[in-house]
Design a protein that fits this description.
alpha+beta; 6-stranded mixed sheet
Length: 253
Amino acid sequence: MMQTSHTVLATLVVVAFFACMVEGAPAAPSCSTTYSATVDVQVDLRKKAASGLTAELLAPVSWILRQRLSNVCGIDVCDLDLESAAVTGNDLFQFDVKDSATADALSSCVASNVFQVRNLFKIASIEEYTTTTTTTTTTTTTTPAANNGWVFGEYGESCTAVCDKVGRPCNEASMAAVDTEAESLFVAGLFGVQCHAAFPDLSQVFTAPSTYAYGEFTFCLRGGNASCNDIPVGFEAYVRRFCCCGQSCASSQ
């Protein structure tokens, strides 16, 4: 009679065990957690997954892993979304977690505990997944506008530098030809520059044609030194040159 009772009990245990196996995973907990972080799980493959981790191998054991991580690491089971688990490599998968703090807690816990999942894999590490953002910086070079071949340079620029920006050669002859007040005012007028006065040859100090800004006054300079390479040394903050860029530049209508 005693032997029969043991036999019946053993049979019930075996039936219950296989019933659990057939049933599979228990029902997922009802969670309303918002997941804002993702973790990468690196694993060491075991015999049953020797050829690589697959979704078919991972899905049936995800609930086991979720429960074990929750129990050992002291993390709320709802903070681990193993239902989102996805294989991303031969020995790598991802799943969502509540936040970065949860990801850090998992990382520390796995580093000091062994998590073996059946004969499929052992967790080697868990790290928060981060994306790499590449920032491209675009440098825009403004090309000065040309008018009748003339280009109005910036303060302190040589005409060689000004003409290089528009891809044309500097023409010293046309610049030297601006030697009357009318011609000086004509070139300035092409760029809307209103001169309070127009001075003749000041080549000892400046290169011409150009403007000299002094306070609220703008003076136009003409004649004399029209070198393409010269810059107004000592007056870089005050002088802007009118540069002839090209074969010829008209200085009158």
